[in-house]
Every structure is written in structure tokens, then in C-alpha cells.
Amino acid sequence: MTGHAGILRHAIQRLLGVIPTLLVLVTIAFFLIRVAPGGPFDAEKALPAEIQANLNVKYHLDEPLVQQYLRYLGQILTFDFGPSFQYKDWTVNELIGEGFPVSLTVGGLAMLLAFVVGTVIGVTAALRQNTAVDYGSMGFAMLGISIPNFVIAPLLILLFAVFLGWLPAGGWDWSLNRMVLPVITLALPVIAYVARLTRGSMIEVLHSNFIRTARAKGLPERAVILQHALKPALLPVISFMGPATAGLITGSVIVERIYAIPGLGSYFVQGALNRDYTLVMGVVIFYGLLIILLNFTVDMLYAWLNPKIRYDEKR
Amino acid sequence: MELGDVKGRSPWEDAWHRLLKNRAAVTSAIIMGVMVVVVVLGPMLSPWEGDFTDWDHTFSPPSFATGHWFGTDAVGRDILVRTLEGGRISLLVGLVATLVSLAIGVTYGSVAGYYGGYTDRVMMRAVDIVYAMPFMFFVILLMVVFGRNIFLIFVAIGAINWLDMARIVRGQTLSLKNTEFVEAAQACGVQRRDIIVRHIVPNLLGVVIVYATLTIPQVILVESFLSFLGLGVQEPMSSWGALVNDGAQDLESAPWTLIFPALVLTVTLYCFNYIGDGLRDALDPKDRL
Fold first, then answer.
1. Continuous H helices in B149-255
2. Which chain A residues contact residue B231 at CB under 8 A?
3. Is any Cβ of chain B less than 8 angstroms from the Cβ of A17?
4. What is the predicted pLDDT for the residue at A242?
5. Which of B113, B134, B158, B180 could form a disulfide with B170 if both were Cys (CB 3.0 to 4.6 A apart)?
6. Band of pLDDT at residue A113, cut at 50, 70 and 90
7. How distant is the Cα of B142 from the closest Cα of chain A, in angstroms?
């Protein structure tokens, strides 16, 4: 029981730790947007001074900076990112609502694919350590790490859309056909990392005493691997899920642009190029939150799965 | 006992021999050496200027007859020269930004580790906080707010990558702190700053080298990523990321504009990763992945 209490206390500590991170995130975002030249109501033709003043009052731009900052903090607490500068009549929240489900679908599928395929490759390589299979799959994994996704994507389009004509080159209509290439592009580097991690930890686990015991008592090899070795070998992979998500989110910016997918990443890039500050801020804070919360979840999952970690004592 | 002829081998020599046995790493190092020479000298030897527009040969495929070995782009610029010139920027960014992150990371990590106690807790807590941020987005944000500037790229990318370095260096410093030679220095009354600079940092070299080698490809990748989005280096300057971006636009009509820069970029990243892996195996044999 003490173990559970320990995890609970650790969870609360970690959650408290999230608060300063968020605060720094929002603060940097807020002051960067103030430093940025241009404002929400800049137009080619300058507005009459009275209208400008009224608008400033409406959006509280006339208040002292500190008051605006506090107001912004309050706004963020209610998940209100304000109006977009460029997409007229759209709030940033609405834009996120439009784009995020698309990104989530592509990213989620990529994550699933990456962890399944990566684990299988990693375990296979570990079981055949120092054979051609091992070298081949690790060489492939290194390639997956080294080829940037903005190189893979055009190459995949060239091969499957232009030369072979099997799949559409881009666009989005929620059909599986159009998801195949983006999901593969996003998943490849993660597959590579997961494969390397799994192989490494699997080899280590296979050398440990409890595996020798399992073999000594005559368990079939299959049971040794699946029931005893796999779970501890996957622990580093679990803790990689946090960074992997962050990587997928970053990668989605590129992938959505190349495949013309109307996800959050493409809004972000468009916002950045159009200097749509509120949109860019909103997306940064939203993604920041997402990454922080996911890291927290992964951390908890890890603590729960790993019997060696008990948060009773200070490490 | 005839020990006179036996020459002791330092750990560095051992590491060197281990490294030379790693064929992937040695091959990669040779390829990278050639790459650096070609990128630096190549543009001077080529008959074309990087920004010269050969209107007689726009979108011409790779051919020896036209003199454009890698073909030309939409306005007739020679892809080979552009790739080499882009390589200068990409490799330079890789090197400088890595040095920036090393400088920050080693200083921060060794100070936190050596001073310990409250200083350490506060400093590492700050690292934890910053670590959880979506950094790529902050870099993009910086480029948007302050404009595209090559020095900003160096600093911004360097500023992302120092966190890992600081953590690794701190860990190593903690274990070095209680060794006899540091205690001896303390007993002699050497100042803390001098102990860090003269006794701690030189002993971190192995880890730092390994990590720096692995940082270079990451940094090149980040720069390419920015340039691909149109937020990196500005015309007429070019980098591999910018060239891949250009090439991806003309993918169907002129695939060579994509394939050559993409190939060179990938080979470079591949080689750096193998060199880094080889160095890690050589310098830190107990921690292999």
C-alpha cells in the first residue's frame, strides 16, 4: 500500500511542478507577442483615431501591461485564446477546434503504427543479435532517424503518387486512402527510435537473472520472451512516449504542409508566415499544455508499471 | 620482470583503437571529411556561380553535356553549386550552434553539479521547467517575431540544445566531485572556479565529445526544418533544407532538384549519427544501445 501512496504523492508533486512550467510558457508567449511589431487592427488604411481608441478599449489594449498580462493569464485559464488576427470572424479556439481533430487522427494513427512496428523490429533484432537480421534492421532504423520527414514525404509522393499512382499525393477528406502516406511519414522516425530502444533494453533484459531462472525451470522460449522479458524491456519505450509525442507534433507541422492536410500544424505555419500572432501563441500554448500533460501521464504510467520505482523516498 | 619495454596505454588510446575497429564510424568519418572539403572548395572550382541563372538551360536534367552535373532549377541555377553552397551554411550552422549549446550546457551543468545543494536544486529545477516547453515552436516564434537572421538561427538553435548537455554534464560532475584529485585540489586551497575549469571540465571531455557529435546532426536538422518552412536562411543564401523545399515544389517535373540536395543532407545526417554512435561505444563502453 505504501507504494500506491508514494505514487500518489509523486503525482501531486509532479502536478505542482507543471504549474511553473505553464506559467513560464504563457509568460514568454505573452511578452513575445507584445514585442512583435504590428497589432490586431493594423490595416493598409489606418483607422480613424476614435475607432482605433474604441477598439483598444474593447480589447483592453489601453490598460497597463501588467494588468493586460494578468487578464491574459485569466483568459488562458478559461482556455480562451482570443480572436485570430488573420482569419477574420474566427477565434483561435475555433481554429484549434477545426484543426486539432485532423492532427490528432493522423498523429494517433502514426503513434500506434510506430509503437507496434518499432517494438516488433526491436524484439526481432534483439533475439537475433549480431546476425544479418540485426544489422539490417538497425541500419534501417538509423536511416529512419537520419532521413528528415520533409525528405521522406516528397520521396513517398514521388514513388506512390507520381510513378505508381496508387495513392493520392495529398489533400484531406477523412478517407483512409489519404491518410496512408502522411501516417507512414510521421511514423518512420518514431519506428526507428522505438526499434533501437527496444533492441537495447531487450538485450539487457535477456541477460538478467530472472530470465536465466525462467529458462532454467524449462519454460518454452516463447513464454520466456512474451511473459517475462517483454514487459520490463518495454519500460524505456514507454518513457520514450513523451518525447515521441512532442516529435510527432513537431513533425506534423511539416507533414501537414506537404500533404496539404488542414490540421493544426498547417494553421500554425500559415499563422507564422502571416504573422497571425494570436493564432501562433494559441497553438504554442495549446501544444505546450498537451506535451506537458502527456509527459505527466507517461511518467505516471512508468511509475505504475515499473516495480523498481517507488516514490516513497527521495531519490 | 621485464616491464621496461611495455608501454602503457591511456584510456584515450584504448578508445581510439576501439573507434578504429568500428567500420561504420570510420567510413562515415571519411565520407564526412570528403564532404567538408568538397563543400568548402567545390564552389570555387565550379564554372558556375550559385546565383547565376542559365536561361538556356532551365529545368535541364543532370547531364555532363550542359555542364550542369546535377541539373538546374526553374531559373537555370546549377543544382550542384547550390547544393555545395547550401552545405556550407548547413554545416556552419551545425558547428556554431553546437558550440553555442556546448558552451552554455557545460558551464551550466558543471556549476550546478559542483556547487551542489541549493544552487544545484534551483538550477536543475529551471532546466526541468524549460525542458517541458515545445521548443521548436519557440524557435519558429522567434523567427517570426524578430525576422529571419542567420545569427538568430545560431543562437536560437544553440539555446534549445543545451538542456540535455547541462543534465549530462551535471551528472558527470557529481561523480567527479568526490574523487581524490578534486579533494586534493580543494585541500590545496584551489578556488572553486579553477577546480571546475582545470579539474572537472577536462575530465568531462569524453562525454562532451560524444554528445556534441550527436548534437550536430540534430542542429542541421532543425535548421533544415526551419528553412523548409521558409523561416530559415534567406535568399540568395541557401541551405539544404531550403533546397529540399524548392525541390519539393517541382517534384513532378524536375525530381533532380529534390533528389540531390535530399541525398546529400541524408548522407550527412547518417554519417554524423554513425560517428556519434561509434564514439559513444569507444569512449563509454558500458553504455551501449
1. 150-177, 180-187, 192-194, 201-203, 205-228, 240-249
2. 272-273
3. yes
4. 76
5. B113
6. very high
7. 8
Q: Is A268 exposed, middle or buried (0-12, 13-18, 19+ CB in 10 A)?
A: buried
DSSP per residue, A126-164: HHTTTSHHHHHHHHHHHHHHHS-HHHHHHHHIIIIIIIS
Cell numbers for B225: 526544418
Q: What is the pLDDT of residues A213-225, one digit of tens each?
A: 888 888 888 888 8
C-alpha cell at B81: 553549386
Find all residues with CB under 8 Å of A224, minimum gap 6, and list them: A211, A214, A215
Q: Which residues in chain B touch residue A291, judged by CB atoms under 8 angstroms apart?
A: 132-134
H-type helices in chain A, by residue range?
A: 2-35, 49-58, 65-77, 92-127, 132-146, 149-156, 176-206, 209-216, 221-223, 230-258, 264-273, 277-305
**Phi, psi values for residue A116, rounded to 5°:** -65, -55
A25 touches chain B (CB under 8 A): yes
Nearest by CB to residue B244, choosing from A142, A151, A162, is A151
Determine the average pLDDT of the residues in A282-292. Answer: 82
Query: Which residues in chain B have their CB less than 8 angstroms from residue A36's CB?
Result: 144-145
Which amino acid belongs to residue B171? G
pLDDT tens figures, B200-229: 888 888 788 888 888 888 888 888 888 887
> Other C-beta atoms within 10 Å of B70: how many?
22
DSSP state of A189: H
Q: Is A15 on the interface with B (CB under 8 A)?
A: no
> For chain B, which domains are there?
13-287 (1.10.3720.10)
Task: Decide which of A5 and A238 is more confident.
Answer: A238
Write the pLDDT tens digit of every residue in A75-94.
878 877 777 777 777 888 88
Would an 8 Å CB–CB cutoff place A223 in contact with chain B?
no
Q: Mean per-residue pLDDT for A140-166? A: 82
pLDDT above 90 covers a percentage of chain A that reads 3
Contacts of A155 in chain B (CB under 8 A): 258, 262
Report which of B236, B224, B228 is spatially closest to residue B49, judged by C-alpha positions: B236
Predicted complex ipTM = 0.72
| Residue that wins the pLDDT comparison between A138 and B281 | A138
pLDDT at A308 exceeding the cut of 70? no
- Work out the minimum CA distance from A248 to partner chain B, whole angstroms: 12
Which one of B23, B125, B140 makes the best mutation probe of the A interface by having the most chain A beta carbons within 10 Å?
Answer: B140
Which residue from A25, A150, A287 is facing B228, i.e. has the nearest CB?
A: A150
Is the model's pLDDT at B289 over the cut of 60? no
Angle at which helix B79-115 crosses helix B240-249, to 10 degrees, equals: 130
A272, B144: Cβ pair inside 8 Å? yes
Q: For residue A57, is pLDDT > 80?
A: no
Q: What is the pLDDT of residues A182-193, one digit of tens each?
A: 898 899 889 988
Distance CA B277, CA A256 (A): 32
CB contact under 8 A, B273 and A145: yes
Please report the domains of chain A, with CATH numbers, ordered by start residue.
102-261 (1.10.3720.10)
